[in-house]
Structure formats: structure tokens, C-alpha cells
Amino acid sequence: MEHALSPATLAELRRPRPYPAVSVLTPTHRREPDNAQDPVRLRNVVAEAKKQMEADPAVTRERRAEVVSQLDQAVTEVDLAHSEDGLVIFAAPGEHQVWSLARSVPERVVLSDTFLTRNLVSAQAAERPFWVLSVSADRVTLWNGGGERVRAAAVGGFPLVREPENFDPERQEQIGDTPSTFRDERTRAFLRDADTAMDAVLRGSPRPLFVTGETAALAAFEEVGQVARRGVQLPHGGLAQGTPDAVWQAVRPAVEREAARGVERVTGELEAARGRKEFAAGVDEVWRNAREARVRLLAVEENFRVTVRDDGDHLIPAEGGDLDSREDIVDEIVETCLETGADVRFVPDGTLGDARGIAGVLRY
Q1: Contact 363, 150 (CB under 8 A)
Q2: Which end of the chain, N or C, is more open, meaning fewer C-beta atoms within 10 Å of its C-beta?
Q3: Which of 80, 119, 82, 117 is nearest to 103 (CA)?
Q4: Average pLDDT of the segment spanning 346-351
Q5: Could you tell me where the beta strands, DSSP code E, fall in the chain?
Q6: Under 8 Å CB-to-CB from 225, ≥6 apart: which residues?
């Protein structure tokens, strides 16, 4: 199942496709007894997707058979034993994808000429994604972090591995992290390559960066480039070839400290915006400003959910079963704000007080 949503992947998912591009969403559960319902819900929502295609006169029999085949293949790839909080299946002629999300989604089927991406976008923002770059003399590994976990990231040419023949034979038996090794010009050239590669990753997917390595490795990496100065440096060696769990345990305290500072900055900006009358609060007011691209900073409490319907002038509360209800309006707002250049931050429940779960700093 898919996890990492890069800008390139998102652009590919939003590419127009031959009709129907089918998006199937269902909530899932991590633990018993709630997860017992997941197989039944998945089976029912997939059956609903097939039913909608069969009833749609714009879908030919041949096209329906092709997409149904892709849906069935996708279902075989679903691993409900390791469920998170939401599951999204995309199926179109000749392709399918399965996404596991650490954020709940409404049960839903959408037939369109593009895939429904708002829930993926919101889930990634809620995970507060970050990069970890683990530096050593012979290997530099990039880790994709978020949602209290990290995994190796095979992007930007990472991991970078220095060929053994580049080492001085007298140092072959060394671990490679001594100060003398990092004064070697071949090592420094290798680190410069890593700096260039990481700079390109950050330009394409900017997010907080944590850099790990022995003290000598961090010093050399900072001397040869610019990337180390833009991140939080953590003197912890051995992670370039470490396990995801070892990396997470090493960076977790720093990640949590930075997250807490981030929440303080957000609340400070919101309070300042109140005084300037550049503040919006509540789902209706924020949604109206988001559609006008007026939101510069969006703050959303982590578990804030609300179901609404549009009465033409405002969003008003609704029940989930209402025909015109919108259960994922928060995810719509998040995606809209990101597309208009806003900074989106998820904060702990209760942080926003009387703002009722969602608030924004306006551009004007």
C-alpha cells in the first residue's frame, strides 16, 4: 500500500483520466474490536462502486469490466491486518493504487475523470511530515518522517553510497567516522554531493529537516554545504545504516520539541491576527475565505470533524446521512488552502479555544 505523497505523485494523481476514474474511501481501525467491521465495510463500499458503474450510462460494458478488474486487484493488495485510520483505493483503466492513511475518511465512492485527492493531502498535512538525513563517510540515507514513524525515502538519488575503492586502503578497517576521515577530500566531495541532492529534495518538497551523524560528520557536512544549517543537527551516529525504529527513537525528542514550538508560533500568529482584524474562525467563515484565497495560515485541531451542507450563502450543520451533506469539508478546506499557498498546521485538540476547531490568519 502507498504511504508517501510527494508533489510529483500528487500531480500524477490529479492528472485527467478516461472516465471513470473511481475513488473508493472507507474508514479503518487499528485495534480490536473496531477493526472487525473493516472487511465488511470494504466489501460493501467496493460493491457500491461497481453498482454505480453499472448504473452509469456513460460507462461502457468493456470499460466497466476493465475498471472492475483493477478494483478487484486493488482489494487483494489491501492489508487490513496493518490498518491505520483510513483507506483510499483508486482505480481507472489500466491502473490502481491503494493508500493507507493515518487520518479517518468518510465512506464514499466518487466516479470522475480525476482521482479524489483531498483526503490524501489533508492526511499528509496532519502527519506533520519531516525529513531526516543520516550522514556518514560512506553512506547518506534520507528518511521520510511523519505520524510518529519514519521510513527510508528512495528519492533524490538517496541513499547515496560511496564506492569502497574511493577509500584509502589504510583506512579500510576503520568505521569511517573519525576526524581524519572527514578531512579527506574524497569524503568531503561525497558530502558535497549529498548536500546538493538534499537541497534539490527540499526545493521540491520543503519540510522540517533533522540531520544526524557523528559530531565530526556533522561538522564536515556543514562546512561543505548549506543544507545542514537549515536543519536541526543531532549528534547521533550509526543511523545511515540503521533501522526505521532506531532513527525514530533518536529523532523523536527533537521532533516533539520542534512541534511544540510550532504550536506556540501558530497560536501567537492567530492572536496577533485578531488584533489586526485579519482573523477567521469556524468552518463557515474559514471556508468562505479559503475559496477567495485569502487564508495565509490555516490552523486545524487534529481531530476536528464536522458535517455540513451548503444552503447557498453559508455552510450549516448537517447529518451524515443527508443527501447533500459534506462529511469531509475540513479536508476540502485544507486542500484548498494548500493549493492557494497557505501554510497549514494541525494543532492538538483544544488549542484553538473559541475558534471551534479551525481558524485562519488572512492575507488582507
Answers
A1: no
A2: C
A3: 119
A4: 94
A5: 21-27, 86-92, 95-101, 108-112, 130-135, 139-145, 150-152, 160-161, 209-213, 232-235, 279-281, 295-301, 308-310, 315-317, 343-347, 358-362
A6: 191, 192, 194, 195, 196, 199
Q: What is the pTM of this model?
A: 0.79
Q: Enumerate residues 6+ apart whose C-beta is below 8 A from 137.
A: 162, 176, 177, 181, 182, 187, 190, 217
Q: Do the beta carbons of residue 362 and residue 285 sit within 8 Å?
A: no
Q: Are 125 and 150 in contact (CB under 8 A)?
A: no
Name the pairing type of β-strands 308-310 and 295-301.
unpaired
Q: How far apart are CA 276 and CA 247, in angstroms?
A: 43
- Beta strands 343-347; 295-301: pairing state: parallel
The whole-angstrom separation of Cα 98 and Cα 13 is 12
Q: Which of 121, 132, 138, 181 is nearest to 155 (CA)?
A: 132
Residues 217-251 have pLDDT tens digits of: 999 999 999 999 999 999 999 999 999 999 999 99
What span, in angstroms and rounded, lies between the C-alpha atoms of 4 and 235? 27
Q: Tell me the sheet residues that pair with 151.
A: 144
Cis amide linkage into residue 33, ω under 30° from 0: yes
Contacts of 50 (CB under 8 A, 6+ apart): 68, 71
pLDDT tier at 147, thresholds 50, 70, 90: confident
Tell me how far apart the alpha carbons of residues 303 and 285 are, in angstroms, rounded to a whole number. 19
Q: Are 345 and 297 in contact (CB under 8 A)?
A: yes
CA proximity to 131, closest of 44, 37, 203, 214: 203
Q: Give me the amino acid identity at 171.
A: R
Handedness of CA 185, 191, 197, 198 (dihedral sign): negative
- Burial label for 157, CB within 10 Å (0-12, 13-18, 19+), is middle
> How far apart (Å, rounded) are the C-alpha atoms in residues 347 and 172?
48
- Cα 277 to Cα 148, 153, 281, 289, 293, distances in angstroms: 36, 42, 12, 13, 17
Helix (H/G/I), strand (E/B), else coil: 143: strand
Contact between residue 297 and residue 361 where contact means Cβ atoms under 8 Å apart = yes
